[in-house]
Amino acid sequence: MARLRRRACIALFLFTLFIFGTMMGLRTLKPSDGFSDLAPGLELAPIAEQGERRSVSHEAISQPQAATSSDAKAPTPPVYYDLHIFYYTWYGNTHFEGKYLHWDHVMVPHWDPKISASYPKGRHSPPEDIGSSFYPELGPYSSRDPEVLEEHMNQLRAAAIGKDALTYVSSLSRQCTLTLS
After folding, report:
1. Does the global pTM surpass 0.70?
2. 17, 85, 125, 140 — which has fewest CB within 10 A?
3. Quick one: signal sequence residues (predicted)?
């Protein structure tokens, strides 16, 4: 009986220590740590403006106004320097490099030989099969294409990304990383 009581007391002590440790760890965190209160998307959340509702007339809904000008750009969101992405510049296609670079890598076999035997072996064959879980909207692009780079930078700006860790392969075939603000 004493042994059971001792084990129960030790288990209760460890559980209590874990709970108090977790509470103290969470208590040290502040909203200013990491993301601020103005993190992307929070400006759309109806927190403070819940009581302020505006009614819209039926005419305004049924007759939308025409666009003012075609060259007017939508306002860009503020940049959040807490958001980082890695941008890889080693992709190539037949138009710029003469062959597909990094889109046609070797197919990774399954770890189980029985399952691996039922899948194809060799290399991926772009442009249909690019060796990626998601097919890019711009297709198998080249990182040297200025239009692709411009589109990617516009997408980063629209997503309010503040830091870009630019990763590239140098002439010495080493992977290098730069951080751009």
Report:
1. no
2. 17
3. none
| Tokens (6 digits) for 169 | 């392969």
Q: pLDDT tens-digit profile of 45-64?
A: 444 444 444 444 444 444 44
Confidence of residue 74 (pLDDT cuts 50, 70, 90): low
Measure Cα distances from 105 to 91, 120, 122, 125, 179 in Å.
11, 13, 9, 9, 26
3-state SS, one letter per residue, for 24-67? HHHHCCCCCCCCCCCCCCHHHCCCCCCCCCCCCCHHHHHCCCCC
> Structure tokens of 62?
């049924």
What is the SS3 assignment for 123? strand
**Close Cβ partners of 148 (under 8 Å, ≥ 6 residues apart):** 138, 141, 142
pLDDT averaged over the chain? 76
For residues 136 and 62, the model is more confident at 136
Q: Give me the residues paired with residue 56 across strands.
A: none
At a CB cut-off of 8 Å and minimum separation 6, what does 178 contact?
165, 166, 167, 168
Who contacts 122 (Cβ-Cβ below 8 Å, separation ≥6)? 106, 107
The pLDDT score that the predictor gives to residue 14 is 96
pLDDT, position 21: 92
CA distance 124 to 108: 10
Output the DSSP codes for 73-112: PPPPPPPEEEEEEEEE---B-TTTTSS-BSSSPBPPPPSS
